[in-house]
């Protein structure tokens, strides 16, 4: 059995020009690491603006009204919210903290979508005060909002047919909301839903079904203008061939301690992000149906607006050699934890290959990556990654495309280790990068 049989197949991430510039710069990453003194995240908000523009172009080509709300739970960085404000996108928030942070970094009140179940009275009051669009998840929430006696804009969140989700209103609850005569200054402006998975056809079909609900609501006097299909726009992390090889051949032989995972995020998608939105609008000519009925389609992408907008950097501070089936591999320890690379929060593994920096010649070696904690289970990468050269103490390990959910979904100062800060890259006339700490 050769080295390739115990070292995982490569999963190289798609790389933007800014990322290559960062890796090619002889000093920038080292300067950042020196200034921080621990693990850190790198953010490039210009990529967020580009992603927003690509989604907006799909709406324009389809000839329909579209609204984009960034799902803020995917990343807390202030620079992302600022990029949304500058690019004309709104923000989807689900707490008073997220709402006030969005306002603080340039989002206007009427550019907010407020989601989440059983919102607190404080969140409902702030949302109404600022003219946000509020997605109502239960009738009691609607009644509490009406009791505030403030003008309020509302979407009714629909429980998808056949779903066992804890979120959303049943048919009977929707009818009760639409026929309630005690709602005062609450305006019912449309419907929303969220679907698990990444099936564009399912989103298109439910959106089309909700057009009839919009017509019925208008007949009852409600100024219904919007259907929100939520998020769930897939991201394409790695080339198709690499993903096919991994899914066909992956097994415990590729993982430290013969670790097994039952499921992975689909790290390759043939039609990700904006292309998936185009599929939604094209299915059964949904775009024409929306246009003919004067309905705006809202989306709430999180991960997809963060595609290729950030990376995570750890310093190697320990190197061991271990063997699997008689062949050596490296077992690295870095200066952070898997809490800052959060896929294992979902009982899975983040698969795009990290890159050792600085670049040096050497022969390929398999390497698993452990964290700086005393927990046996705390590995950033159980998989024996095919590094292009052996890692050494003091090297940096750069995990690509981590801005979507990986950076801070599960962060913790466990062991009183520092939470990695976010550093924001700024172009300086295209000649070199400058950087600053994120304002969040």
What does this structure look like?
This protein has 2 domains: 17-44 and 308-437, Lyase, Ornithine Decarboxylase, Chain A, domain 1 (Beta Barrel), CATH 2.40.37.10; 46-234 and 269-305, Alanine racemase (TIM Barrel, Alpha-Beta Barrel). The chain is built from 13 helices and 17 strands. The protein has helices at residues 3-6, 17-24, 28-36, 45-62, 78-87, 96-104, 121-129, 139-147, 171-178, 200-219, 240-249, 273-282, 286-292, and strands at residues 40-43, 66-71, 90-93, 112-114, 133-136, 152-157, 186-192, 226-228, 296-299, 310-324, 327-334, 355-357, 365-370, 379-387, 396-399, 422-428, 432-437. The strands form 2 sheets. Strands 1, 10, 11, 12, 13, 14, 15, 16 and 17 form a 9-stranded mixed beta sheet that branches. Strands 2-3-4-5-6-7-8-9 form an 8-stranded parallel beta barrel, surrounded by 7 helices. One of its GO terms (biological process) is lysine biosynthetic process via diaminopimelate. GO terms for molecular function: diaminopimelate decarboxylase activity. It comes from Nocardia pseudobrasiliensis.
- Written as H for each helix and E for each strand, in order along the chain, the element string is HHHEHEHEHEHEHEHEHEHHHEEEEEEEEE
CATH topology of the largest domain: TIM Barrel
The average pLDDT value, as a whole number, equals 96
Largest sheet: 9 strands, mixed
> Got a strand count?
17
CATH C-level label of the largest domain: Alpha Beta
Main structural class: alpha/beta
Overall CATH architecture of the largest domain: Alpha-Beta Barrel
User: Which regions have little confidence, pLDDT < 50, spanning 5+ residues?
Assistant: none
């Amino acid at each position: 059995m050769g080295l390739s049989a115990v070292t995982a197949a490569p999963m190289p991430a798609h790389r933007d020009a800014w990322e290559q510039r960062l890796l090619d710069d002889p000093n920038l990453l080292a300067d950042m690491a020196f200034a921080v003194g621990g693990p850190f995240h790198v953010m490039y908000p210009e990529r967020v603006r580009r992603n927003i523009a690509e989604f907006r172009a799909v709406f324009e080509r389809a000839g329909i009204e579209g609204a984009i709300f960034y799902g803020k739970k995917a990343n807390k960085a202030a620079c992302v919210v600022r990029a949304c404000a500058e690019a004309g996108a709104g923000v989807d928030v689900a707490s008073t903290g997220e709402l006030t942070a969005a306002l603080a970094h340039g989002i206007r009140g009427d550019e907010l979508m407020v989601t989440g179940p059983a919102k607190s009275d404080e969140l409902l009051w702030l949302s109404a005060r600022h003219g946000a669009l509020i997605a109502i998840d239960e009738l009691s929430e609607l009644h509490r909002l009406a009791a505030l006696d403030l003008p309020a804009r509302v979407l009714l969140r629909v429980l998808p047919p056949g779903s066992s989700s804890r979120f959303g209103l049943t048919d009977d609850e929707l009818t009760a909301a639409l026929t309630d005569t005690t709602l005062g200054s609450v305006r019912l402006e449309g419907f929303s839903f969220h679907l698990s998975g990444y099936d564009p056809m399912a989103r298109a079909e439910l959106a089309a079904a909700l057009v009839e609900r919009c017509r019925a609501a208008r007949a009852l006097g409600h100024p219904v203008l919007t259907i929100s299909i939520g998020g769930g726009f897939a991201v394409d992390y790695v080339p198709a061939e690499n993903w096919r090889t991994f899914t066909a051949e992956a097994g415990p032989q590729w993982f430290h301690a013969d670790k097994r995972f039952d499921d992975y995020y689909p790290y390759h998608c043939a039609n990700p992000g904006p292309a998936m939105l185009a599929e939604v609008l094209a299915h059964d000519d949904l775009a024409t149906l929306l246009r003919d009925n004067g309905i705006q389609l809202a989306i709430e992408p999180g991960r997809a607006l963060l595609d290729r907008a950030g990376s995570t950097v750890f310093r190697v501070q320990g190197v061991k050699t271990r063997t699997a089936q008689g062949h050596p591999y490296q077992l690295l320890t870095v200066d952070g934890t898997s809490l800052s690379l959060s896929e294992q929060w979902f009982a899975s593994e983040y698969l795009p290959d990290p890159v050792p920096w600085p670049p040096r010649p050497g022969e390929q070696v398999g390497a698993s990556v452990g964290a700086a904690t005393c927990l046996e289970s705390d590995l950033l990468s159980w998989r024996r990654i095919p590094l292009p050269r052996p890692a050494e103490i003091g090297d940096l390990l750069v995990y690509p495309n981590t801005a979507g959910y990986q950076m801070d979904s599960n962060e913790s100062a466990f062991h009183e280790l520092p939470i990695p800060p976010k550093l924001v890259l700024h172009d300086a006339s295209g000649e070199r990068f400058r950087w600053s700490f994120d304002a969040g």
